[in-house]
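WARN retry 2 of 3 for item q-0093 after timeout on previous attempt; input resubmitted unchanged.
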Amino acid sequence: MKFKKIPLYGAILASLMMSAGVFVSTAALAQDAAAVQPKANWYTKLVDVDFVKPQAVVPKIDGVMLVDSRPAVRKFDLGHIPTAVNIPDSMFDKLAPTMLPADKTSLLIFYCDGPECILSHNSAFKAEKLGYTNIRVYAAGFPDWIKNGNLHAVSVAHLKKLMDEQKPMTLVDARPKARKYDVGHIPGAINLPDSQFDKLAAEMLPADKAAALFFYCDGLACKLSNDSAAKAIKLGYTNVKVVPEGYPAWAKAYGPGPTASAAAAPAAKAPVMEAGKESGTITVASFERIYQQAPDSVHLIDVRDASEFATGSFKGAINMPVNSLEKNIDKLPTDKPIIFFCGAGGRSGEAHDMVKLYKPALKTVFLDAEIKWLKDGTYTIKGH
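OK item q-0093 returned
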């Protein structure tokens, strides 16, 4: 029998397996050998999913750090390996000194977007130059992680974005009710404690097995959300994700969430909307009192273009450009008053007038003011 030429280790393996009475095609062996061969400019200490999986567990293992080398907003936020930190390769020199562990013998596992992505290898070389001695690269990266059926993690920033865009989802707090959820939770989350998952899941989770489910608990020391997510997958849910940093990261980024006592107490009376000089307007002073004291009592709708909205806006605002408002007018919320705003008052006034024409029952006002937002989230506002 004439065999094709294959790499040495493949030939040895083939010989051993054939001697044991096992037939393995030379093509399969050649393909397997090629999969582990470093490419040009690759970091040579490579690992596979079987090596990474025991390291990507919660509670997070001391002395181990998974590093996602991809861009934050376009990649990491949307999906990453649980417990991984995000150090984009483009920002490695700036972020590594404060984000990498002080112990240079810590196990560092870099990954990015698969065999065609060089970012993880570039970062591994940089870490080596900083003196780290225990570095590996998971060259198959995040696509391989998901392909092998592992949990898909997202950041709290991505969760917030989905919530702001009012994307359909079921957000599940897997922590105990009285000691954790009632003390503070992410807005909109239901409480399904992992200890009661088998008992309550059927009545609390959506019937649609394709519905988006997001599980969280108390950060990288808490495994409840991972356990609940795995149970949901066993029940047949196909769109399950975890938010590993959980409520602590949410509270740090966006402030403490609602509590059981706050929900039980009567809602504080929102400041009165004071009409401005022009019909349909709200005074700047009145707006700022509402924005600071009772932002949940109104809907803030930014009618500027999406590119303008992306540079800064009021926290919690929805973007609905005035040019698209007419065709989306039925999507406007009806449960609370709407305050339209833009950068100078022209487009917000137009939005208000349009709603009064097509949906006069809706309560709307607009800000006739010059508004500028700064990169740090602050703003200046001056009424006309």
